[in-house]
Amino acid sequence: MAIALIMRSRFSERRASLINGKLKGLIDRSTKELQSQGFTEEQLIYEVFANIRFEGSDTAEHSTSPFERPVYIDDVRIGTITSASRIAEKSPLQQFKDAKLREASASTKQTQVFFDSGTGCRSAPVYKLKDLGSNVRAVQSCHYHGRDSDHSGQSFMRRCTS
Fold first, then answer.
1. CA distances from 73 to 37, 55, 65 (A)
2. 71 lies in a domain?
3. The model's pTM
4. Signed CA dihedral, 88, 85, 133, 129: sign only
5. What is the pLDDT of residues 64-86, one digit of tens each?
6. Beta-carbon contacts of residue 148 (< 8 Å; ≥ 6 apart)
7. Residues 62, 63, 64, 67: what is their CA dihedral angle, to the nearest 10 degrees?
8. Residue 18 shares a structural domain with residue 44
9. Which top-level group of life is the source organism from (predicted)?
10. Across the strands, what pairs with 63?
């Protein structure tokens, strides 16, 4: 013979305030994280999700709707939605015009490159992009003469071999 334990609980105002407090904490953390990425609170939309079971069922369901019969709440989540199109952003051309460029530090490495345009082998600086940072102008010793067969106006360049 098996013995079944039956537990009954009702949703109370105390439970409602606990769940609302948890949701507020989740929303606050999500808001802070997205604000650190440049979004404003006005750009954010929140959706509350609950994993629930209806009374008399052991199947969990995912719901965002109010309920017409008693439910058991297994957990709650929030989804924060925003769109990059909601951010006022300057065009790439305007960003380029507004950029305060600085000269790159001297490169620590040089390499020989060959130009088909008649200039032959030349020494050229080597920069690692990750070390340059943003808004850096790297002055090169490369000159394009625009007389090669790719019709792009740029001369071909390849490493010189010894």
1. 32, 10, 13
2. yes
3. 0.40
4. negative
5. 555 666 667 777 788 888 876 65
6. 116, 117, 154, 155, 156
7. -160
8. yes
9. Eukaryota
10. 50
